[in-house]
Amino acid sequence: MTTAADIMHPGAQWIPANETLDRAAQLMRELDIGALPVADPQDPNERMCGIITDRDIVVGCIASGHDPARVTAGELCKGTPRWISTDASVDDVLQEMESNQIRRLPVIDGNKRLVGMISEADLAHHLTDDQLAQFVERVYA
């Protein structure tokens, strides 16, 4: 059985909730990624409290007239964070992403540590054309 660990992009990095959005954007540029999980730096287990995307920074901060050097990642992230465990099946991954209409999904290990991310590109490499078409239809509907 193919698992989330098999299809994820390993080595995902999170950003502390108290870090500014300009730093988040710089980190995204350095890592060549479009999303960062946000973790509570006060939590010894580094629990995820959200996720921010490059689009969130542009639309939710800059286009709204806010200064990304003064707005934190924690202020921008919203909603209930979603994730999947490393041993989840591809069907479970698709279900989580489709039911929540999300395009990126953090992957956690048995110790609840962030170990990777699954994006649309990762899915494209591991799904059949029919599975991918169904995913796109459900997430973008």
From TrEMBL:
InterPro entries: CBS_dom, CBS_dom_sf, Diverse_CBS-Domain
Keywords assigned: CBS domain
Chain ranges of the CBS domain: 8-68, 76-134
Protein name listed in UniProt: Hypoxic response protein Hrp1
Organism annotation: Streptomyces bangladeshensis
Highest classification ranks of the organism: Bacteria, Bacillati, Actinomycetota, Actinomycetes, Kitasatosporales
Gene name, Swiss-Prot/TrEMBL: hrp1_1
